[in-house]
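I have been asked to look over a protein record a colleague put together. Alongside the sequence sits a line of tokens, each denoting a local backbone shape. Please read both lines and tell me whether the tokens look consistent with the sequence. I do not need a full report, just your reasoning and any doubts. I have pasted the whole thing underneath without changing anything.
>
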Amino acid sequence: MALDLVQETDSPSLHRFQMIAWTLVLGLFFLNSVYFSLAMPQFDATMLGLMGISNGTYLGFKLPTAGPAQ
């Protein structure tokens, strides 16, 4: 079932795996920060830059594969 989230056609897709990994890492970071300090996490400029690069990569891989709407 989890493999279905990563596969695009017949093979695993790197950009889908990357989005799932970032979601899990940042979700754990958020839960840890809220649970132990009862505060919203503060992301520094480096983390925001990495998230921007990751999302830009995902978008870059999605654009060529998007077909016409039917």
Notes: The mean pLDDT is 81. The chain has three helices and no strands.
